[in-house]
Design brief:
Chain lengths: 347, 191
């Protein structure tokens, strides 16, 4: 077995091709092109980074530096990540596998379904009540949790969130009780019904982020399609379908669909990674967001601080770096009091 | 879950699944497998370098068109131009702008490849991969039960990932069902 090289800079400028196969080979290489042997080397480095990230032994800054060296590095990482995800999907709901053989049967069935069903929406039928208990999962403040649902889909709960689900082979329902959940949905015989506070969205196979906020259900689609249902059954609203990189906002009124900004997407991906991302937001909004993750809340005392714009990437459960940044770069006094942090302007 | 930026998520979901079709198109444009791989890789690199990727409505068609244009660029720079290739590229037909269908390699194929890759990899790599990915077992617990260090486990998992990626990446263009929009050349499959 070959030993792994430690990550190092890969020369991205190609040397002259070693074995030319045809007359047109000269001059066809571009600076961004790397030779197959380099590509292989990059693939190995990318695998090592993914292994470290998965095992929690990665130095995140070093990883970001590595990935940003060239597009080829980013591509190599995306490839190995894609394989990792595909591998998980092929295994589906199967748990505790000791040898590779038992994977195949159920996975084959799922694959066969996948081939025929992706993207198809069935009309919203009347819910039949069946005597299956709801399963539940929840997180406290500052926790996240990943849950594998019976159909092999995964749900990742953000801080202070609760979901319940019921699946009987054909019908799949997930209820968001509070908070936020990221859903990675595998194809099934029908769409998955996401319900919350009397609102319902039908989700195709794909990747979604749903957040319940002030009685409204905000569903961001990263892959697949979300179809909003209003209170009136079968109302034919033309604008209640959100495709990839759109958000579907469900309220008691008319659903609305909007393009998701890159910022929204980046924030959504950040929380799944234990991070919180601010991109030029007012301090008051940033604190609302941060406080979701904190038992000890950060509170603005001098109200004129509320409009200060802040940005940065922080660990969601530990605000010390964030508070330091407020202190040093914004001249804000941070006083611990009663387990909370009070923000005042420095005199 | 590792750090995926929006562009990585988009690339994995919307672009990479179509790679077999890109390679097949590139082979018709470039005629030799190495050059075809380079062309696709370069198109991917350009995607990563551009702003506004999120507004690309049909990534598959977009990349196919990129490949065609890049191939023409390359031809123009080449010292000796083969006339036959110019007309070939002019004949190259990018699929029309119908919405993408999910024409990715079949799930059955995927499962077969995963299974083959698992069977072929060393036991010690497979064990770590399965415990981490299927069972979701915490890294330290795996290390303790197997009696290995985290850094040894890192090496084994990385090795498993390389082998897995290699098995899943080996795309055979013939496996892909092409839509009617692409003109099939007679020698396309032999490239």
């Amino acid at each position: 077995m070959a030993e792994f090289p430690t990550p190092s800079i890969i020369p991205c400028r190609t040397c002259p091709p070693q074995d030319q196969q045809g007359g047109h080979a000269a001059g066809r290489h571009d600076i961004s092109v790397i030779r197959p042997s380099d590509r292989e080397h990059l693939a190995e480095e990318a695998a090592q980074w993914l292994a470290r990230l998965e095992l929690g032994t990665a130095d995140r800054d070093a990883f970001e530096r590595w990935r940003s060296r060239s597009p080829a590095h980013a591509i190599a990482f995306a490839r190995v990540q894609a394989s990792w995800e595909q591998f998980g999907n092929a295994s589906g709901a199967e748990n505790g596998i000791a040898s590779p053989a038992p994977i195949s049967r159920r996975a084959l069935m799922r694959a066969a379904m996948a081939a025929s069903i992706v993207g198809v929406f069935a009309g919203g039928g009347i819910l039949t009540s069946r005597a299956y208990a709801w399963d539940r999962a929840e997180t406290g403040v500052g926790e996240t949790k990943s849950v594998r649902l019976p159909d092999g889909s995964t749900a990742m709960l953000n801080t202070d969130s609760a979901i319940a689900w019921k699946m009987d082979g054909e019908r799949r329902v997930v209820r968001l009780g509070r908070g936020e959940v990221a859903l990675d949905i595998l194809p099934g015989t029908d769409t998955l019904s996401l319900e919350s506070a009397g609102l319902r969205a039908r989700l195709s196979a794909g990747r979604f982020n749903a957040r319940l906020k002030a009685g409204a259900l905000d569903v961001m689609v990263l892959k697949g399609e979300a179809h909003g249902e209003t209170q009136a059954l079968h109302s034919a609203q033309p604008d209640n379908r959100a495709g990839a990189y759109h958000t579907l906002l469900l309220t008691s009124g008319t659903p609305s669909v909007r393009a998701a900004s890159q910022q929204q997407m980046a924030e959504t991906l950040a929380w799944q990674n234990g991070e919180i991302l601010f991109q030029d937001e007012p301090l008051s909004a940033a604190l609302d967001e941060y406080n979701r993750y904190l038992r000890n809340k950060i509170v603005i005392i001098d109200s004129d601080l509320a409009g200060i714009r802040v940005g940065g990437r922080f660990t969601s459960t530990d605000p010390s770096a964030f508070l330091d940044a407020l202190r040093t770069s914004l001249d804000i006094e941070v006083q611990p009091a009663d387990g909370n942090y009070l923000l005042t302007r420095k005199k | 879950m590792p750090a995926l930026r929006p562009i990585d998520r988009w690339f994995i979901d919307e672009v990479l699944p179509h790679e077999p079709a890109f390679l097949e198109a590139a082979r018709r444009l470039e005629r030799d497998a190495d050059a075809a791989h380079d062309l696709v890789q370069e198109a991917f690199a350009r995607l990563f370098a551009m702003d506004g990727w999120a507004s690309i409505a049909y990534p598959r068609q977009y990349v196919l068109r990129m490949l065609r244009n890049m191939s023409i660029e390359r031809l123009r720079r080449a010292k000796i131009v083969e006339f036959q290739r110019i007309s070939d590229i002019e004949d190259f037909d990018v699929e029309d702008d119908t919405p993408d269908q999910f024409r990715i390699a079949s799930g059955k194929d995927l499962v077969g490849r995963v299974r083959t890759a698992l069977n072929a990899m060393p036991e010690r790599c497979r064990t770590v991969l399965i415990r981490r990915r299927f069972d979701g077992q915490p890294p330290r617990e795996i290390a303790r039960e197997l009696g290995i260090s985290l850094s040894t486990m890192e090496k084994r998992l990385a090795r498993a990932l390389v082998l897995l990626s290699r098995a899943l990446d080996t795309v055979e263009p013939k496996d892909v069902h092409e839509g009617p929009g692409i003109v099939q050349r007679d020698d396309a499959a032999t490239g």
